[in-house]
Amino acid sequence: MLTLSILGFLAERPMHAYELRRRISDLIGHNRPVSDGALYPALNRLRQAGHVERQAEPGDSAPTRQVLRITPAGRTELLRRLAEPKETEITDGGSFFTLLAFLGQVPDPERQAAVLRRRLDFLSAPGSFFSRSGAPVRIKDEEDRYRRGMLIMARAAQRAERAWLEETLRALLEADAAAERPS
User: Fold this and answer.
1) pTM score, whole prediction
2) What confidence tens digit (pLDDT) does each residue in 50-103 have?
3) Cβ neighbours, 10 Å, residue 136
4) Is 19 exposed, middle or buried (0-12, 13-18, 19+ CB in 10 A)?
5) Interatomic CA distance for residues 180 and 183, integer angstroms
6) What residues does each domain of the chain span?
7) Looking at the domain that runs over 2-79, which CATH code has it been given?
8) For residue 56, what are the β-bridge partners?
9) Hey, is 132 helix, strand or coil?
10) Of 99, 114, 119, which Cα lies nearest the Cα of 27?
């Protein structure tokens, strides 16, 4: 998700590594803090792959600073990653939210919708934090109050996410249909 975040934020605009780290930390840092020890090796890998470039920018009264920019190859890679996410980027909530933060950069509404449909399909499958004999535990069957609380909160969040996904998919399909109608 670090690579996706770097490419996603740099696609919005060039920035210094310090600002990039702050933006990434705001997005995913509550789950996994972003350290210089993680950011700079990732930036170096992206530079070596030709996805990010660094350019010197003169400071007003400060020394020259390095500005990071996404390259055309980096933009292509970003769009590929957004339109064709890995399964874990669909099933893991934190990873999906990172993906969602940049999905609007995919220019094709149908490709956006395909990603959202994958998430909706995942959320529609039976599942639970806990299982007995291979079957998901239902809220009413969980005796431990804290585990029951986990199930109640997860179910509420899942309902809200499904409602948003369904609403957004409808809007994308309506916009696509309107664009195809002759004027």
Assistant:
1) 0.85
2) 999 999 887 667 777 889 999 999 999 999 999 999 999 999 988 999 999 999
3) 14
4) middle
5) 9
6) 2-79, 108-180
7) 1.10.10.10
8) 66
9) strand
10) 99
